Amino acid sequence: MGRNRATLADVARRAGLSKTAASMVLNGREGTRLSAEAHQRVFAAAEELGYRPNLAARSLRTRKTATIAFVSDIVATTRFAGDLIRGALDAARERDHVLLITETQGDATFEQYAIEAVLDRQVDGVIYAAMATRRLAVPGAILGGPVVLLNATSPDGLPSVVPDDEGAGRSVAAALLELGHRDAIALIGRNRLKEDDPEVSLAARARLRGIQQTLGEAGVSLLTECFCTEWLPEHGYAAMRGLLGKPKRPSAIICMNDRLAFGAYQALGEAGLTVPEDISVISFDDDPIAAWLRPGLATTALPHEQMGRRAVELLLDGGTNPPSLVPMPLRRRRSLAPPPG
Amino acid sequence: MGRNRATLADVARRAGLSKTAASMVLNGREGTRLSAEAHQRVFAAAEELGYRPNLAARSLRTRKTATIAFVSDIVATTRFAGDLIRGALDAARERDHVLLITETQGDATFEQYAIEAVLDRQVDGVIYAAMATRRLAVPGAILGGPVVLLNATSPDGLPSVVPDDEGAGRSVAAALLELGHRDAIALIGRNRLKEDDPEVSLAARARLRGIQQTLGEAGVSLLTECFCTEWLPEHGYAAMRGLLGKPKRPSAIICMNDRLAFGAYQALGEAGLTVPEDISVISFDDDPIAAWLRPGLATTALPHEQMGRRAVELLLDGGTNPPSLVPMPLRRRRSLAPPPG
DNA sequence: AGTGGTCGCTAAACTGATTTAGCAGAGCAT
DNA sequence: ATGCTCTGCTAAATCAGTTTAGCGACCACT
């Protein structure tokens, strides 16, 4: 790979100058007293030879690699990981950096290995990402340099980037209130584990808090709250069937994520009810299925790409200590309507 | 990041030996005549100092970085990218390598930049990945070293890894024949562009070929073929509605991917038909929605994780020239039944 | 004539590893 | 005593950059 590339010495020789001169010119060093003509010659030589510096050699001296490590627990299982990475990739490119990606799979041995691997390569900083928003403990080994937590917070007060789930909860509740829903709003997806253990999820509690706060301010309380052991379609389906078996039918459903909402749609379809005429549905995440459902599912979007980008910016440009909250925009789609009757 | 790490010189000093000796011992060089005691002392010193070699320094000398570039057109838009990356990540870790990931977004300038960025870092090889299986032209700049195409082929005959879409087409057709479907099998998702331009897709043509071949061998031909401009749920929905408007109702539907099948399910639900009692449905990809649908959608899985893994293996262990075909396993789910009546 | 400053540039050290070439001492045969 | 080989080890070169220290020429000033 990249054999026989021109070296700085080649450039210097061709320009009839020393390596020192060539290095200074190419790095645009201020305060050097090299003549305009010397500059010309160096640039011309570099151009002609297609010179590109060997970054291994450079970083040996400067201890900078223009490389960022992106260490995450799980890359594959969620569709969103890609967006997180893409945002980071974009921001990194804008700053002339590159991303070294590793995955720990939540396994301590792999994590240890991943961290050593990136430290051995002298990365300039580490983005430590979680695929579900949560609190986590950062391995001490990476604390020797800049670290930013992505989609996670830590007890150590490291800079971190998380979505504004509480704000999303408020938006969701506000959207329903605005349409006139008051006494028949049901919630699908309560979950003690997610709500109570910040190492499992920060999103559940924050979303719930946002919802309750906004409803509370309007003097409204939830009609029913369904607990679900997981946030998968089958649990949304079961919860929705349960709701439909009760005497008072809800006018609107808030689902804690889009997959639950997908399940709810299935139950509604089977029961012969239509969204949004009979029941409005709104949720969280903006998973691709939200746009595919009929009618389109209104939801608040997890701004993963923004977040990835922000993490790189914090890492390289230095950043705030309070967790950086990225807003979750409301995507209004056809699943919302005023309550029936 | 990683300041004040112990160097080889530190280890050598502590062991009371030369850098040369320390280097040789730690690299397990054969044929050196260093005493067993010297070995002990070096290992002990390295252990005590927590020595880890500086890979920038090492690669300056050896021109090996134990780093692979993963250059892809688009990371974010499909859920599958994550699996491709994860497979590559796993295989890379097993071989003590790490992945440098870049994205070209299908843009020539970005591609140029991405390639320079990875070559500057002296990667040991490049995995050039496409997110939709297709043929593409590989930029000359990376041909200086090992390259493997992932989910793509090129006219240059470079080693490549692609899914066995034709085999998947055969499995799909066979599964329906096996259940007794013969004269009422419809196909949703014909698309001239995808079928005819290998730079757009290789999958469409291969899947179709597999289906036609297996049906042909059984003396069966398709009842109807629906053309779709894209392979999205809305197109599957429209195609299915069209099919249901015709006099002869199909007993089984083959969709060219799961998103089309999802749309077909929606149309079937609205029409009050049930899967699989009224109509069987089968498709391609094994998108997560396939498992979430009710009833679960039978489909052939794109083996992305396997493919990512294979690409790394080909790159590092050297490989075959004919494109390496990775089988697409059939996932049998409840959407299949014998034809009604 | 001597001193000091600026200008334009370079030699050499340095980063941390690998690798080549070769040295000192022991043992043995002549 | 001399020459030879083998053993166990090391000095120094090398990779390709950056950085420090400083050199010679020229000019101005006293």
What does this structure look like?
With 341 residues, chain A is an alpha/beta fold. Helices cover 42% and strands 18% of the residues of chain A. The first copy, chain A, is built from 13 helices and 12 strands. Chain A has helices spanning 8-15, 19-26, 36-49, 55-62, 81-94, 108-120, 165-178, 192-196, 203-217, 233-244, 258-270, 288-292, 304-317; strands spanning 67-72, 98-103, 125-135, 147-153, 160-163, 185-190, 224-227, 252-255, 280-285, 298-301, 324-326, 330-331. In chain A, the strands form 2 sheets. In chain A, strands 2-1-3-4-5-11 form a 6-stranded parallel β-sheet, with helices on both faces. In chain A, helix 5 links the parallel strand 1 and strand 2. In chain A, helix 5 (81-94) packs parallel to helix 13 (304-317) and helix 10 crosses helix 11. The radius of gyration of chain A is 26 Å and the shape is elongated. The termini of chain A are far apart. The mean pLDDT of chain A is 94. Strand 2 of chain A pairs antiparallel with strand 2 of chain B. Chain A binds a DNA duplex (30 and 30 nucleotides) through helix 2 and helix 4.
